[in-house]
Every structure is written in structure tokens, then in C-alpha cells.
């Protein structure tokens, strides 16, 4: 999986990518793909005949006296009747397809998000994967729809061109030269213009981001205080002005080039080839050479304009085609990504009851990193043990717990649970025995109860959910919520949704663990009390220890007061365990831990001394 | 035309659309006159010319051929028109160039207005939950929409004029032919209105489910959810919601698009069936029954009717689009015309360092909240005192600080400093005397030096000050490793090599700001929450050293920091329930003491369970008494 930049993709690949996208839509809904193709196909044929053959015959019937009034009218009615039929098909299919595409988009989107949920977490945590991978996948549904539409358009346009071309050839092949020459000039200049516009667009976006950043800062509530209290607005305004000047400079440089190319394109393709040469040539044929009649002139004139329009349309479709082809390259990679951890079925069942979790000689290194994030970690966690992990920011604590949850796999060494390597278990089953409160815990757009059980909630679970929330010290807030457990969380779906503060959200996240009940064998808390005040923290710690007694608890904390009571404390530094033992042992050791503890309790310490004396 | 286009909407709204169009043009006119003028000129004249170019020339050519006029005449006419056509290409290319060039100018004009306004809007307005939705999101779009509105509006006018010109040409050939234009005009107005209604209905009905599906999609692609999604089973619930909402969206779309489809079909039927078909029949009848040989002219006229019908549709489509776009500009108008309370702020300058603070019986309630955050709070603080504000979440500590800084208007009571009411001070200058580290501190995508000084350093002295401040704030080690020192760009927003700081590092930069500013009053709102213990200890130590003689406010959950304060205020429900220094409060055995004991317990070996339960009993006894009294 190398990094995908705006790399050049071979034409062959481009086609294969578009085909891939279409086959995706085909799988999702065959009918819509088929009907869209058919509709485009039939409409362009009808259009081609209407603007040329129908007109030619009509003029012929008008000018020759052998055709009677009635006959001509019948001809007109039939001709226009077919036209109306064509339009009816077009407009009804179009609106049917728009609705149907909503469904297709849903199906495709779901397939992609399911895959996204299975992609190993590493792809999210490493920028190069995230940008190329996840972002690309998030736009796949639009691109797939675009693939169907642009290819259907190309098909329709080519059919239209073929039909018109045949008609022109039967009357006067020379006329065909003009639209074809126009197409070639158009292709060349348009290609140059598109490229220039693309480059400009990139530059513009880059510069605009700078300007937009300043603008955003000015009205985002979180920045408001800082803006009001300081002079930071001066450099921000300056940054904005600089960006604007840069945009102007690029626009000036680019604008002239584009203007010249556009003029060449318009003057040659539209004015000269289409509106000057064709009428003059047709006029020459009919007035000087006297070889063609008015009907042919009108039909020819219309036909060549229609061909040119179709060719133009084809050009635009090509741009879309190229875009889809390039984009599909990325989401193909996404779908082809070989999942290493998620969805693994496992060869062994997770042993029942609480087991020993053992980490042996485990190292972990991010792909492309120069050194290990974790280096040769050894740890044994007995059932019911309370393990504290302490250390400075960036010591590898969070990475370590992610490995325990099998969100990452160790680069070296192993983790065993009940003497079985955790890689041998089904990932889903193994994770079901783990409860975790992450540092960046989230609240989801669902009811409170669903946010606690983290799945569908049924009435029978009420007791469990209430108890879990109570243990997490959420009862007081719960009593204030009008809909109780069924209160809609977050304002994502409607303004009526309830927002919770950081501390309250954390309590819900903690309740999730309590709700796991007996299943819970390993509880992991990454800085669980950072958003809580002292009273809530004390209550929570007490509840944790009393209610998940049999499960092992692993917690990461800055506050050594919380970690003090742990059965075993590990001090991490630069990915290694530098000290371990109980609080007393570590204090006796007089090492980094003791140092940290003393500094932190410095202010409390005086108090202790006073009380002792 | 605006009226016709929106005839289906109620009177008030119709006026709103018209007014917003006027406002859009006014705003753009002020931003750049030449651009608005050029756009009007180009889009209107071009459409009219094209009409003559397409219709008149076609008719001329057909007639020439039919009547077998001279070829030279034909050449002259075609050449003349093509020359004018080329001139118009120059107008077009010039306009595209002009637009590209003027866009940034227009953008910066609006930007300046927005930020000038934004800096005067009071903070409480910012913190209302709908603020971001109503202004920020809307303002992002308003300018592009405004420009699109101008384009559409001018096109619509151009198409209208083009339609009129085409009708004149048709009338010259045969006035009766003009009648054929009426049905599509009526149909376009009636069906256009209906279609608009249906689209509006679709948007309304779809809103909720669309939000659901977009939210769920986001959850799966956003990094912050990735861990939990994998560990818990919530994804199954989300898949189900996603599928349900998409099914709803499909059902709604199907129902409404079926109607839209039939109306659109009706429009085509009127267009082709009534107009084109009858025009053909009429032309056939005229040619076949009379002797006039004007086939060329009449055939050209059928195309012209087609052209006029198409123009009518365009006029209405563009006008609707212009209306839709211009409505966005109302957001800008609303924002710029928002009556801010702060503009009434005082003008008095702070002449000497801020000293004694006197807060008397102040109250404050957030807009829309049922109960007050600050309820009749009074306190007085001497210059140079170190004050700790403690209390549970939501007790009003941060609000009190914001009131002191004049960020919210007081609803009752007053705050004076050295006997002067703070509302008399000129806000900008008043704020200069505070150094604050907020809970939700922000780091800007600017060089490190700007982030510390909060402006560009002007000379070498200031650069040294920045470095010193960073060192005092424990940022020295990091600074040493930054390749460009204090000129390093912060965040990767604009610079690939920008420095991304962790929460703790961001906090250190915010603390460095206070050191660099050297204010009279220092406010630290939970300054240590993201710091590890060693950094926290050192930070307090430095802070105390640096704030010698200054008034300092601490807000902290960790009472260890409260201990160093000269006075501690314990807040509850927006009132001060206990005050005094640490020893006094511990002796008192009240709420503070209980909170402190709880925290200190972890560090102390000696504290007994009995003492804690005793405290709890005292607490509940007091509560019971309190209830009885009330």
C-alpha cells in the first residue's frame, strides 16, 4: 500500500476503474442502470432524427405541391408524436431514476461504511492512509452515481453523433468536415484550459484555505474570547490580506492564458467553423452550384450544429469520466485492502471465566516510523487485578491499551489471554469481554439507553441500564431528562436533542462498561476522570472498584492519587516500562514515580504532616 | 419578473425575495461597481445579440436561398454577424477574466465587514447554541451564492429581453405566430410554481432522514469515533438506522419525484403538443393554402418559437435560482445589522494598574436558561491577592470570571475596580490588563511568536520576551527542537512542516501568553487539566514567581492548587457559600473541607474512614436543616 498521490493513471486503468464503478452500481440495482442507459440511448436517437430528417422531409413536403395539406399534417402529427413520446420517456425516467438513485446511494454507502468499520484502526491513525483511503471512500457513492450517468451520456451522445453523421454523409459528406474540425480544435484547447483551470483551482483552494481560516476563526464561538481579549486579530487580518493578494496575482497570470485559449476556441469552433463556414458553404451549394434545396440546407445546418453540440457534450462527459476513473482508483484500494485484525473469525474460542492476560516481550512500531513506540513490554495481569499505567504525555500508554484491545497487532512478542494468543480468537468475541473508556469518548446520535448498551435497546435491559448509569453517577442528571432513558442525545438529528457536558458524557461512557455486566473481564480506562470534578471522581473510583471487582482494571492516569491504590503500577517512559511495583515499593525505590508523586502531592503533603503532628 | 416567478409563495416572502435581491446587488455594488456593471452589460446584451444571431440570421439565410437572392449579399450579412459575434466573445472572455480578478476583492470586502461586526458582538451571543448554525455556516456560503444570484438575475433579465426580441422578429414575419407562445408561458408559470413547491416539500420532508444518514456516514469516516466503533457493537445499531433512513428517503423521493415527473411531462406536452405541433400545423396550413412562398421564413419561425419557449423557461429558472441564492445574503444582512449591546460600552481609559475589585450583588442568567448561573454574588479583592475559586461543575466559576472581564453584560448589581464601574471602561483597553488561560484555550495557525505575543513581534526585544515567556511556561525543551524556533508555524493547516502541539503543549503556549503580556490581573481557568503532574508543579511554581504583586485568580478542580491561594471562595449555585484561607476553611469543616479531604485522602495514609463519614453526616445534617429552614 504505497501512498497514492495525484498520480498519473494509465488509460487502461482509467477504463477498468470506471467499469469497476459501474459494476458496483449494477450489483446494487440492475434495473436503474439498465433503464438509464436505455433512456439516454433512445432520447439521443429521437433528438437526432427530429432536428434533421424530420425537418428536411417537412420542408420537402411543404415546397412540393404533390403533397397535400392533409398528408403533411398527418406527417407532422406522427413526427411530433414520436418526439413527445421520447420526451415523456426522458422526463419520467429521469425523475424515476433520481428517486431510485437515492436508494442505490444508500446501499453503496452502507457497503462502504461497513468496510470502513472493518478497516484496521491503523488506517485511521496514520495520516497517509487516512487522507488517501478513508477520505476517498467517503465520496465513493457520489462517484459511482457519476460513473453511471457520465457513461450513459457518452453512449447517448455517440449514438446521436453516429445517427447525425450518417444523415450528413447521405446528403453531403463535406459538411461533416466542419463539426469534426471543430471537435478537434475544441478537444485540444479545452484540454489545455481544463488543465490550467485545474492548476489554478488547486492553487486557489490552497490560498483560499488560508483566507478562510482567518474568517472562520472570527466567528467560531470557541475563538471568540481570545479574539476579544487580545490583538490576535491583527496578524489574522494580515494573513487574510496576504492570501487575497496572492490569489489576485495568480488570477491575473492565469486569467490571461485562459482568456486567450477561450477566444481561440470560441472564435474558431463557434464563429468560424459553425456560423460562418457552414452557412456560406450551404449558400454556395444552393445559390451558386444549385445542387441542394432549402430542405437540405435547413437539415444540414441543424445537423452540423447538433453534431457539434453532441461533441461538446462528449468532451464534458470525458472530464467526468476521467475524474471518476482517477477517484475509483482510490476506493478500489480501499475495498481491496486486506483486513488484518477486524472480522477475524479465530481458530479458538475465548475461554470462559476470567483469565490471566499476559504480555510477553511485546514491541510495536508504526509503519514507516524509525523507532518503536513500545519496546519489549512484559506484564502479567491476573483476574481482578487493578493495574495502573502512569507516565508522561507521549510515553506510549494509549498505544499500549490499544494493543490490549487488539485495535493494533504487536510487531513483535505476544499477548495471551488464558494462555492463548489473542490473535487466535475471533476479534469480535475477544472484544466482547473488554470494556473501555477512551480518551476521546463520544456520544452518539441515538437515545441515552442505546448510548449505554451501544446497540439496540429493549425494555428488558432497563434494569441493567439504570444500574449502570447509577454506578456511573449519572442518576441526578437522568432525573432531569424529560424522556428519561429514551432521551435523544446530541443535536445531530434535531434541535430537540440533548447535549451533555464533557463530564456527563464521560459518565455515560463509563456506564457502558458497567452495562457489560458479567461479560466484562477486562476494563480499560484511558484518563477516565479528566473531565470530572473531585467529588464525582471519588465516587466513580469507589464504584469501579466495588462493582467490577472480578474483572481486571487497567487505568491510565496523570493523577497519581487515583493510581495509588492499584495492585500494580507500571511507569512508562519512551515506550518502555522503567519502574513497576506497588505504590509502596515504588515510593521506596525513590525513582521517577516517587518524584512525580511527591511533586503532585506537594500541597497536600503539608497538610498530612500537620495532621500527623 | 420576480413577482411572477414566485407567485406561488405568500406575499411576505415574495417581498423578502425581492428585497434580498436588492440587497445582494447593493452589497456587490459597494464591493466593486465595475464588476456588477460589467456583469449586467455582458449578460443582457449577449443574450439579445444571440437572439438576432440565431433567429434573424437563420431566417435571412433561408429566405435568401428560397428567393434565390445574390450570394454576395449572403456573404456580407454572415460576415457582419460573425464579426459582431467575435466582439461578444471578447466581452465574454473579458468578463471571465474580470470575475476571476474581482472575486478576491469582493470576498475581502465582505470579510472585512463580517469581522468588523464579529468583534463587536457580545460573547453571550456567540455562546448561544444556534449562533454557529445561524451565522457561521450561512456566512460561509453567502458570497458564492450572492455572486451566483447576480449571474442568474442578469441572465434572467437577458433571457427576458432575448425572448422579447425574438417575439418581435416572429411578429414581423407573421403576428399570429406570437400567439403560440402563450400556452408555454402560462404552463411555465403554473408548472414552474408547482415544481418549486414540490422541491421545497421534498427538502422539508427529507431533512431529518438526511441528517441521520449524513451523520452516520460521518461517524464511520471520522477518526474520533474509530476506536469505539470497533470495540462496541454500536455499529449494528447505526447500520440499521442508516438503512431505515435511506428507505424513508427513498420513499419520500419516490412519492415526490413521481409527481415532479408528471408535472414536467405536462410541461413538455404543452410545449410540444400545443405549441410546436400547432405551430407546425399552422405553418403547413398557411403555406399550403396561400401562394406566398415564404417556407424559409416560416420554418425559421418554428425554430424561433422553440427558442422563445426555451427562453421563457430559462427566465423562470434563472429567476428562481436568483431568488434562492439571494436569500442566502439575508444571513449576511442579518449578521451585519445585528444590534449588538456592546457598542454601548464605555470609553474611559484605564490609566493605572487595576487594583481593588469590588463585586456587589451581581446576577447573571444565560439567555433561554430557566435559572441563573450567578445569583446575588458579592466579594471584594485587594490588589495582589491570590484568589482560588472552587466548586463543583456548573457552580458558576467561569461565568464569574467572564463577568469580571466584562465579557457578559451584568443583569443586576455592579463590579467596580478602584471605585470605577467596569462598564465605563473602553473594553479593548480594559482587556489589555488581563492575562487569561481559558479552559478551552485556542491555538492559532500562525507562527509560534504570534501565538505567544498575540501579534507580530516588532523588535528583537520582543522576540527575546517571547522566548523567555516560553521558557517560563516549560516550553523551552520543545522550543529547542523546533527548526525555526519561534518562527515555526503552528499546526499543519498551511504548512506541511508546521508544528502540531499536544493538549499539554497548547496549554503551555497559552500560559506563555500570560507571561509575555505582563498583566495586572492573571486568570487561570483550570490551567493544569492537560498537564502531567511534573509539568503542573513547575507551572504553578513559575506562575507564582511571575505574578508577584499581581492579582491572580485560579479555578481548579484540584484543590492542591487552591491551597496556595490567599483566599478561597467556594461557589455553589452561583453564590459564595464559604470563603477564607485554606486553614480557616479546613477548620470550618464545611464543603471545601469535605472536597479537600476526599482528594487528599489518596495521598494521605493517616486519614480515617470515620472522619470522612463524619464529614458526610455533617453535610447531610446541614442539608436537612437548610431544607427545614426554607
Biggest contact:
A-B, 167 and 165 residues
| The CATH homologous superfamily of the largest domain in chain B | ABC transporter type 1, transmembrane domain
Structural class of chain A: alpha/beta
* H/I helix tally of chain B: 21
Number of β-strand runs of chain A: 10
CATH superfamily of the largest domain in chain A: P-loop containing nucleotide triphosphate hydrolases
> Within the CATH hierarchy, at the fold level, what is the topology of the largest domain in chain A?
Rossmann fold
Distance between the termini of chain A: 66 Å
Class by alpha and beta content of chain B: alpha/beta
Q: Hey, roughly how much beta strand do the residues of chain A contain?
A: 5-15%
The profile of the biggest β sheet of chain A is: 6 strands, mixed
Radius of gyration of chain B: 36 Å
CATH architecture of the largest domain in chain A: 3-Layer(aba) Sandwich
Number of strands of chain B: 10
How many domains, in number, for the residues of chain B?
3
Helix-strand sequence of chain A:
HHHHHHHHHHEEEHEEHEHHHHEHEHEEHH
- N-to-C span of chain B: 68 Å
Structure commentary:
Chain A is α/β, with parallel strands linked by helices and 613 residues long. Chain A has helices spanning 11-28, 30-63, 69-118, 122-125, 127-138, 140-171, 177-219, 221-229, 233-289, 294-336, 397-404, 427-432, 448-453, 462-471, 475-480, 502-515, 534-547, 560-563, 583-589, 592-612, and strands at residues 357-364, 374-381, 386-391, 412-417, 420-421, 434-437, 522-526, 552-556, 568-573, 576-581. Chain A folds into 3 domains: 9-171 and 320-339; 173-291; 357-612, Rossmann fold. Chain A has a 6-stranded mixed beta sheet with strand order 6-7-8-3-9-10, sandwiched between helices. In chain A, strands 2-1-4-5 form a 4-stranded antiparallel beta sheet, with helices on one face. By secondary structure, chain B is of the alpha/beta class. Chain B has 3 domains: 7-336, ABC transporter transmembrane region fold, CATH 1.20.1560.10; 345-441 and 546-582, P-loop containing nucleotide triphosphate hydrolases (Rossmann fold), CATH 3.40.50.300; 589-630. Helices cover 66% and strands 9% of the residues of chain B. In chain B, strand 7, helix 17 (533-546) and strand 8 form a beta-alpha-beta unit. Chain B starts with a helix and ends with a helix. Classes of the chains: A alpha/beta (613), B alpha/beta (630). At the A-B interface, helix 2, helix 3, helix 5, helix 7 and helix 8 of A face helix 3, helix 4, helix 6, helix 7 and helix 8 of B.
